[in-house]
Design a protein that fits this description.
Blueprint: H1 11-17, E1 29-33, H2 39-52, E2 55-59, H3 64-71, E3 80-83, H4 86-95, E4 99-103, E5 110-111, E6 122-126, H5 135-138, E7 143-146, H6 158-169
Helix pairs in contact: 2-3, 2-6
Length: about 170
Amino acid sequence: MTGPAVRVRTRKDLRAARRPRPPRCLGHLRVAPLWPMHGINLGTLLRTCDAVGACMAVPRLPWVPEALRRGNTLRRPACVHWVRDPLDWLAERRAAGDHVLGVELAEEAVRLADLPMARRPTVAVLGHERDGIPPEALDLLDAAVEIPMIGTGASLNVAVAGSLVLYKLAGFA
């Protein structure tokens, strides 16, 4: 007995099925690696942003523009918001009504599996890979999401953690 035939979709099929995306930022979903450690992670996150229709907010550090240029494998402009002061920017986003969600191990954090799709403008804040989100920024969060792990590491790579959360917030996972 054989099951139904599996039809592999070609790149052309996949492109035809995608919704056209507006060229401007809608601001609904943003990922904010505001304390980056490695440029390669910014490029990976930029690719995830394209996949889920999100924007990225990054600090104005001297090495960040080159990291984004190198990491933009799509070779077309990406939606990037430049942040001068991370704490001020987070406070502004919150005052504007955005849901500010930190990816952090914290009391009362929501497990990734239980994280609902973003229904209003949402910022997913990512901390430093070694130190997490700085204590002074934790007060600016509306909530935290935890990515459960059973391995010996204390955290995931920032690009991996950000990608998992973005897919969940976008309603793709």
